[in-house]
Specification:
Oligomer: single chain
Shape: globular
Largest sheet: 2 strands, antiparallel
Strand order of the largest sheet: 1-2
Structural class: mainly alpha
Strand content: under 5%
Number of helices: 12
Radius of gyration: 22 Å
Number of domains: 1
Order of helices and strands: EEHHHHHHHHHHHH
Distance between the termini: 45 Å
Length: 280
């Protein structure tokens, strides 16, 4: 007769034991949840994901760009203002998408719907929850930026297909470099009252002074150095050099390391802050 170990029991009867076969198995169990969320909410993101990129390209690149002389020496190698501004707008779109996904939605899952508490009541860990939600955020960034790059393709701003392909994956790195620190900040906040400051004093200045719309050499010396310290400038510069085919390998490595370290530090802070909020 084969002997099998009995399931552990508790006051309410047998206790379910998680059958985990890998480090990401718990996060994989949340794929169905996030797929359901997207299928129920995707219509609300159609305008921002599909129409806004086209309007940005037409307004900033084509209409405004028609009044700006395309001098490569003044536009970081771009032959037209459209070729200069389009890569910057892709990177900026990756950032703004992330701000929308890890501020109010995360606060809602902590404070209003309290979905995180129901998740943590299962064998899922905080790391599983964070990993799964960041995966959903990266999916959103991927779809938005893929559409943006597709919209750019008929305008003749791409120097090579491989540069565009690498630039697409760079957008995911940019998104992750913003998603983890902002996720950590949201997890540490008691309420949503400070989000107005996050958007006004965080997202908007980063958007304006990232080099997306004009070379940062046009700024004062102090502001130029400040811009070089911001993560979006690193993302914009890396995207632009890939799309235009003007890759500086040493500078590209600096950009990747900077964004990667920011994403890793943000991940650690997110797990720690959410652990304190939900469990400790």
């Amino acid at each position: 007769m084969e002997l099998r170990p009995s399931a552990p029991t508790g006051p309410a009867g047998p206790t379910r034991v998680a059958d985990r076969t890998g480090a990401f198995d718990g996060a994989g169990r949340l794929v169905d949840y996030w797929a359901t969320v997207y299928l129920r909410t995707w219509k609300g993101s159609v305008v921002s994901s599909f129409l806004v990129p086209l309007l940005y390209i037409l307004a900033m690149g084509v209409l405004l760009g028609g009044f700006i002389k395309g001098d490569p020496s003044k536009l970081e190698g771009a032959t037209s203002y459209l070729a200069f501004v389009a890569p910057g707008m892709v990177a900026a779109q990756a950032m703004t998408t992330v701000f929308g996904e890890v501020t109010y939605p995360v606060m809602g899952m902590i404070k209003w719907q309290r979905i995180y508490y129901s998740m943590i009541a299962t064998p899922l860990t905080v790391g599983d929850i964070v990993f799964a939600q960041l995966g959903f955020v990266m999916f959103r960034v991927a779809t938005v930026c893929a559409v943006f790059l597709a919209v750019m393709s008929p305008f003749g701003v791409f120097a090579s297909w491989w540069g565009v392909l690498v630039a697409f994956f760079v957008q995911l790195l940019i998104g992750l470099a913003f998603a983890t620190p902002i996720f950590a900040l949201t997890a540490a906040m008691k309420d949503e009252s400070a989000f107005s400051l996050v958007f006004r004093l965080g997202m908007i200045p980063l958007f304006l002074f990232s080099g997306a719309f004009f070379p940062i050499t046009n700024l004062s010396a102090a502001m130029e150095w400040f811009a070089r310290l911001t993560p979006l400038w690193h993302g914009v510069d890396l995207t632009r050099m890939l799309v235009l085919g003007t890759v500086d390998v040493s500078m590209a490595v600096v950009h990747v390391v900077y964004l990667g370290l920011l994403a890793a530090a943000g991940w650690w802070l997110t797990v720690r802050n959410l652990q304190r909020r939900l469990v400790d």
